[in-house]
């Protein structure tokens, strides 16, 4: 029997509630594939920080390196200043394991209302492939009272960046740096091409803003176009503002969308809203090694403990995780089970987020039952 070691970080708010259901689905899906999932639980998140003052222990990366994947609930709590946990956990792990791909699929599911006129009869199935280590999310910035004199340092899987910035205005000011490098653009473009080919898309679409920021995004366009040509996949470009406009008018026209880091964060949430909300929005952070998978919704502390959280996004994220581990049959079974659950139910039998009366735990139980029922049928 094959053993896969999964690091479980339940996180904050509804994180522990939804991650239990995703774990339940993953265990059910792998039960008949000859793979055993060994779960290792780590306590990191708001409660750990508030009780210990520690965001991550010094040996966190080493301990996680012993695992095959990370399964994350959600990070964030109003008792903790914004940015401490997000940067201290999420970005530390993304950068530490060079997870240069943020994968965010967005598709319309049965019985999930799509808030777009004329959507009936159209298939909506989009995939955002977001560069995950550069752009304006490098974490390089400063504020100053009339001037900024800042040393610049950043470690990435591809390089170590060092330098300094010196600015004078005479006024209070802030500076945030966006960086793009050729190897980083090439590898994410190649990844987008690979996913497009696997989905059957005949091209990729790059979200850009080169007309306003030619140095950064003009460079992106140049390198991405050259790499897509080398991969044998046509690439089109669209200004990100125009993309948002057209996406809410005809989302069925979109397929694989390649995005720099900032645009990918924004566009993927828009696409999630178009396809029915964050309750069905899965996400994954991938690289050439350890990956981390999480629903893209937040910790929603206002509904924590009320059995109202929709666990389907967490369940779908578990499917993405299994797919990345080579457990393709189990991943397909989870996808089919979610679609079957939504197809077979309506009204009060849907999750509370979708206007039904079924709580978090019960949704997880029903999906797990369907997985057991259809597991043998999935090729």
TrEMBL record:
<keyword id="KW-0520">NAD</keyword>
<dbReference type="GO" id="GO:0003862">
    <property type="term" value="F:3-isopropylmalate dehydrogenase activity"/>
</dbReference>
<protein>
    <submittedName>
        <fullName>3-isopropylmalate dehydrogenase</fullName>
        <ecNumber>1.1.1.85</ecNumber>
    </submittedName>
</protein>
<dbReference type="GO" id="GO:0051287">
    <property type="term" value="F:NAD binding"/>
</dbReference>
<dbReference type="GO" id="GO:0000287">
    <property type="term" value="F:magnesium ion binding"/>
</dbReference>
<keyword id="KW-0464">Manganese</keyword>
<keyword id="KW-0560">Oxidoreductase</keyword>
<dbReference type="InterPro" id="IPR050501">
    <property type="entry name" value="ICDH/IPMDH"/>
</dbReference>
<keyword id="KW-0479">Metal-binding</keyword>
<feature type="domain" description="Isopropylmalate dehydrogenase-like">
    <location>
        <begin position="5"/>
        <end position="367"/>
    </location>
</feature>
<dbReference type="Pfam" id="PF00180">
    <property type="entry name" value="Iso_dh"/>
</dbReference>
<dbReference type="InterPro" id="IPR019818">
    <property type="entry name" value="IsoCit/isopropylmalate_DH_CS"/>
</dbReference>
<dbReference type="InterPro" id="IPR024084">
    <property type="entry name" value="IsoPropMal-DH-like_dom"/>
</dbReference>
């Amino acid at each position: 029997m094959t053993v896969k070691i999964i690091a479980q970080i339940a996180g904050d708010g509804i994180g522990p509630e939804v991650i239990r259901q995703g774990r339940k689905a993953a265990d059910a899906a792998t039960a008949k594939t000859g793979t055993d999932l060994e779960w290792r639980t780590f306590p990191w998140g708001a409660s750990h920080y508030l009780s210990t003052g520690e965001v991550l222990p010094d040996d966190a990366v080493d301990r996680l390196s012993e695992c095959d994947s990370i399964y994350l609930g959600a990070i964030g709590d109003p008792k903790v200043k914004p940015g401490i946990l997000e940067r201290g956990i999420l970005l530390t792990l993304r950068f530490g394991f060079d997870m240069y791909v943020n994968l965010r699929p967005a598709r319309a599911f049965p019985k999930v209302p799509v808030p777009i006129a004329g959507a009936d009869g159209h298939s909506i199935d989009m995939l955002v492939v977001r560069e995950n280590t550069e752009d304006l999310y490098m974490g390089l910035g400063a504020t100053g009272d009339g001037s900024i004199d800042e040393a610049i340092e950043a470690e990435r899987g591809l390089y170590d960046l060092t330098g300094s910035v010196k600015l004078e205005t005479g006024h209070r000011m802030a500076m945030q740096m966006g960086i793009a490098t050729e190897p980083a653009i090439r590898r994410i473009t190649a990844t987008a091409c690979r996913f497009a080919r696997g989905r059957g898309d005949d091209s990729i679409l790059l979200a850009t803003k080169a007309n306003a920021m030619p140095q950064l995004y003009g460079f992106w366009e140049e390198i991405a176009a050259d790499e897509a040509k080398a991969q044998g996949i046509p690439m089109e470009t669209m200004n990100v503002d125009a993309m948002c406009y057209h996406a809410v008018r005809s989302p069925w026209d979109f397929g694989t969308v390649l995005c720099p880091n900032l645009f990918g964060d924004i566009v993927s949430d828009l696409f999630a809203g178009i396809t029915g909300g964050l309750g069905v929005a899965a996400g994954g952070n991938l690289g050439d090694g350890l990956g981390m998978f999480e629903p893209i919704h937040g910790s929603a502390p206002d509904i924590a403990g009320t059995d109202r959280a929709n666990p389907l996004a967490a369940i779908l994220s578990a499917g993405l995780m299994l797919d990345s581990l080579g457990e393709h049959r189990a991943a397909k079974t989870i996808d089919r089970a979610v679609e079957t659950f939504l197809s077979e139910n309506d009204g009060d039998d849907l999750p509370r987020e979708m206007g039904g009366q079924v709580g978090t735990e019960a949704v997880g139980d029903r999906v797990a039952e369907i997985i057991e029922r259809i597991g043998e049928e999935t090729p």
